[in-house]
Design a protein that fits this description.
heterodimer; A: mainly alpha; extended; B: two-stranded antiparallel ribbon; 17 helices; 75% helix
Chain lengths: 452, 490
């Protein structure tokens, strides 16, 4: 082929007698350019894939820590003299003891544990208890209020260790990094080492991260995703209930009934533009219309769901129209031929055949809505602690809550690096949801897609 | 939640309508379904729709219109001299609303009886202290005008709610009765139902227009308010962004626009070469196996939520860049002050846009007719020469469209810049400095405690409108170019 590239006007025509097996400098140059060009392409793809790998490894390596937590197992003597001075087991009296009143009991339990294990330490009782989470007193109080008959007994508890101790066990906090840290001292770390060696303090799987509620700034070790997951769930419920019927109805009209006129054109232009409007603009719309004008409650999943519905509608309409279009006209003709009305042909024949495609598109739209953050910032789904799981359906829709991506953003803004680990862990959970939804969509498509 | 029960009632009524209408139709044909004009269930749908649709429509319109109506009525009651110097009518109205809600809450919790709540002005009770007990925070003491207005507000909303329930229930029952009475074996139920369904379909499709109108109106309205409080010349042509909640802010969009465009430029500088070469390789060189492996993997990048990229910028890329360029870094230079910078946000946004550019360009390159490639190869051009001199020029308009779409994405992107770009508005050419963008400022002006009467909050709507117009313009241009190009080869 090389001799074909020779053009009469080209520079340096091949001399007579030159071998075809030997490449001229020009051919060499062209072939080198070809190789380079191909290498650019490979480099671009490799670069993209490397980015993906870096992203995934970062998420996994930084986030898996959140699923493990350091716990301290202690024998706690629930002293009657502290918790129920009258000894009547009257629940009202027991409730009067604040978490503050539980501090001596926790200190005592720590001292007893240290003594029993024979660990030598110069720490005072207060510093001993300092390796435990600030959440411990509340945990103990809840237990006592739920089981007042246990007062006076010695009960075994599994307590959360403080965020710093947890970080030390996971390698995030080192002896060098705590030089100026008021929350923990090297002696306390010595104690942690000794307790870990004795098996009292250990790192185990942390179900509370998945099911629990968010916690305040000072207690990163107690923060969990559970409540914000419920918030996301309620939002998705709203999106599904509104976007699917409206989206399908709009697509049916545009694909099957719409005449060619200015109204149809206007609708189509609007849909394609809405698909490209930045999501934050939908947040502004939500703030202005749903909150400032209609006075719906801020931070409510209902409002979040409404905003995400408007945002997801174009996606659902576009994919629904594509799957309606893929149903061959012969189906409609056959239905019309046996006497069905146009409406019957669409609702009885075309729509069921397009259903798998519509479902796939809806799941992908939902996945997109699930990961969306920016509009939620504007309607107030960040900035507070989502601590209570909703109890009723109305509560779930109207009571303030967070959502998974908003919760992750909230953690990323906080000062304590222990929250960063939570944020990465939250991302793992979020991505697991997205992967599941997308896989489901792919499976549905593979399983039910019909080629006509 | 009376609205909820109202909707439940409507649903129950329409379910009853379905069975009632169906049964009456069959009865009118003496049990012989063949005598009916339409299938029996159409008679059912007819009654159900007549009972449900007008009532639910009225409910929706009422819920939308009532707040506006009450607002204008009540704010008309507040005399202009009752508005303090430092405040606006909007602020007074929000006090009125809060007092009214607080009183309703007090009645609900049993702190006050309904009568006490109505006469709270005469009882000499400290309303503010009462509100405080229930967690309704009020700025200052409740003035008598506010209290009167709040009472009027309560009265109007109560009347409004009652009237709404009555109207909706009457409409539902009326629709039910009317449709039920028309149900007869010769009645053309299918035609009526189908026309109604078609109307509903049109309504659903029109929601897209309604959303656009809602977006434009909501922003236009507040932007108008903003320009009433702040000079528009400063907004468009000023040079400083310095919001100050005590007043006297300088709010110019130009520094923000500069940050936005700079970050978008870096993002495109990353995404366009990588995405374009990836698309060329995948469509022209790659074997089927490589293509089916690499393409979906690259597209995963597009499915990752932006919060993940934001966190990646904040906690991984930012610190990594700081390790290189900041004080005490590996390069021994001091070019970077913190982890947030234009480069941080731009790089991460570039990664996000790679699959966007590559899959759009892939489609466009594939649309170039094979005959053009064959012709070029037949003349002895190498593959890369074919791509560069034949395929690319043919695909160029489409690729320009794809790049414009990516640019509009980059300009409207929020989470990555909120977390990675920083908060300082300035004109600077150094990509290692932190700068801020339009979207970042919208988020920061509209989160936290906001007062919708101050220019510092309202500016967010003007920014939003500018952003909307900017991205819309880019999209329309891009779609126009892409469509024009597609026609060429179809």
């Amino acid at each position: 082929m090389t001799d074909l590239s020779q053009s009469p006007a080209g520079a340096a025509p091949r001399k007579h007698g030159g071998s075809l097996l030997e490449q001229t400098p020009r051919t060499k140059r062209r072939n080198a350019a070809e190789t380079r060009f191909r290498a650019y392409g490979i480099a671009a793809i490799t670069a993209g894939l490397i980015m993906l790998v870096i992203l995934v490894t970062t998420i996994v390596s930084k986030g898996t820590g959140a699923f493990q937590q350091t716990f301290v197992t202690l024998q706690v003597e629930l002293l009657e003299s502290k918790l129920d001075k009258k000894g009547e087991r009257n629940i009202e009296d027991i409730k009067k003891v604040t978490t503050f009143g539980y501090a001596p009991i926790i200190k005592g339990a720590m001292e007893a544990a240290v003594e029993e294990l024979g660990i030598e330490t110069s720490l005072k009782a207060k510093e001993l208890a300092g390796i435990l989470s600030k959440d411990v007193a509340a945990q103990l109080r809840d237990y006592v209020i739920a089981n007042p008959d246990q007062i006076g007994q010695t009960v075994e508890f599994r307590f959360l260790a403080s965020g710093r101790v947890d970080g030390y066990m996971k390698g995030r906090v080192t002896r060098d990094s705590i030089v100026n840290d008021k929350n923990i001292s090297p002696e306390q770390l010595d104690l942690v080492d000794a307790l870990a060696a004795a098996g009292v303090l250990e790192k185990t799987f942390n179900l509370d991260f998945i099911t629990g509620a968010d916690a305040s700034d000072a207690r990163p070790e107690a923060a969990g995703m559970g409540v914000s997951m419920l918030g996301s769930l309620f939002m998705m419920f709203v999106v599904l209930a509104l976007a699917l019927p409206i989206g399908v109805a709009a697509s049916i009209y545009l694909e099957e009934f719409a005449p060619q006129n200015w109204l149809t054109d206007l609708i189509e232009v609007n849909i394609s533009n809405l698909a490209a409007v930045p999501s934050i603009v939908f947040g502004i719309l939500g703030l202005a219309v749903f909150i400032n004008y209609m006075h719906l409650p801020t931070s409510a999943p209902l409002v979040g769901g409404l905003v995400l519905t408007l945002m997801t509608l174009p996606t659902i309409i576009i994919s629904t129209r594509a799957s309606l279009k893929s149903v061959p006209p012969s189906i409609r003709d056959a239905a019309l031929g046996v006497g069905a009305s146009k409406m019957q042909a669409v609702f009885h024949h075309v729509l069921p055949l397009a259903a798998p495609g519509i479902l796939t598109g809806t799941i992908i739209g939902l996945a997109q809505a699930l990961g969306e953050t920016a509009p939620l910032l504007l309607i107030g789904m960040v900035g507070f602690i989502a601590s209570n799981a909703p109890e009723t359906l109305a509560d779930g829709l109207l009571a303030p809550n967070s959502a998974m991506p908003a919760q992750i953003y909230e953690w990323a803004k906080r000062a304590d690096p222990a929250f960063y680990e939570r944020a990465w862990g939250g991302i793992i959970i979020l991505l697991l949801f997205l992967v599941t939804m997308n896989t489901l969509a792919v499976i549905l498509r593979r399983r039910f897609e019909r080629r006509w | 939640m009376p609205t909820f029960w109202l909707v439940a009632l409507l649903l129950a009524l329409s379910a009853a309508g379905f069975y009632g209408g169906r049964r009456r139709a069959i009865a009118s044909a003496a049990g012989d379904v063949k005598d009916l004009h339409s299938l029996p269930s159409y008679y059912g749908y007819h009654v159900a729709l007549a009972a449900f649709v007008p009532a639910i429509g009225a409910l929706a319109i009422w819920l939308l219109a009532q707040p506006m109506f009450i607002e204008t009525r009540v704010s008309g009651m507040i005399p202009a001299e009752a508005v303090p110097e430092s405040s606006t009518i909007g602020l007074v109205m929000s006090d009125v609303r809060r007092v009214a809600e607080g009183l309703d809450l007090a009645v609900e919790q049993g702190r006050l009886t309904a009568r006490e709540a109505r006469n709270v002005a005469n009882s000499g009770q400290d309303v503010r202290a009462l509100m405080g007990e229930m967690g309704v925070a009020l700025g200052d003491d409740v003035r008598p005008e506010v209290l009167t207005a709040a009472q009027a507000y309560r009265n109007l909303s109560k009347t409004g709610r009652t009237a709404m329930t009555v109207v909706v229930a009457l409409l539902a029952l009326g629709g039910f009765a009317w449709a039920y009475s028309r149900t007869h074996k010769d009645f053309r139920a299918r035609n009526v139902v189908e026309r109604a369904v078609l109307a509903l379909l049109i309504l659903a499709a029109s929601l897209a227009i309604l959303t656009t109108v809602g977006i434009v109106l909501s922003m236009l309205f507040e932007t108008k308010n903003f320009f009433g409080l702040h000079s528009w010349t400063d907004f468009f042509f000023g040079s400083t962004w310095a919001p100050n909640f005590r007043g006297g802010s300088e709010l110019s969009i130009l520094p923000l626009l500069w940050g936005t465009l700079y970050i978008s430029f870096i993002a495109l500088a990353v995404a366009v070469p990588v995405g374009l070469f990836a698309a060329i390789y995948l469509s022209e060189y790659a074997s089927g196996a490589v293509r089916s492996f690499a393409k979906p993997l690259l597209e995963i990048l597009a499915g990752i939520p932006t919060i993940v990229y934001g966190l990646f910028a904040l906690l991984t890329v930012g610190p990594a860049l700081a390790n290189l360029f900041a004080k005490g870094g590996l390069l021994g230079v001091e070019w970077m002050a913190g982890a947030t910078s234009v480069l941080t946000a731009g790089l991460v946004m570039g990664i996000m846009l790679i699959p966007f550019v590559s899959s759009l360009s892939d489609d466009i390159i594939n649309a170039v007719p094979q005959a053009m490639r064959d012709g070029s190869l037949g003349l002895g051009a190498t593959k890369s020469e074919t791509v560069r001199q034949v395929v690319m020029p043919a695909a160029l308009p489409g690729i320009v469209g794809a790049v414009l779409l990516a640019a509009s994405r980059a300009i409207g992107e929020t989470m990555i810049v909120v977390m990675g770009a920083g908060a300082i508005a300035k004109f600077s050419a150094n990509p290692l400095e932190s700068m801020t963008t339009i979207t970042t400022r919208i988020v920061s002006q509209l989160t936290g405690d906001t007062d919708f009467a101050s220019p510092e909050t309202l500016v967010a709507f003007a920014l939003g409108l500018t952003l909307f117009v900017l991205t819309l313009g880019l999209n329309v241009l891009a779609l126009y170019i892409v469509r024009k190009y597609r026609e060429q080869y179809e």
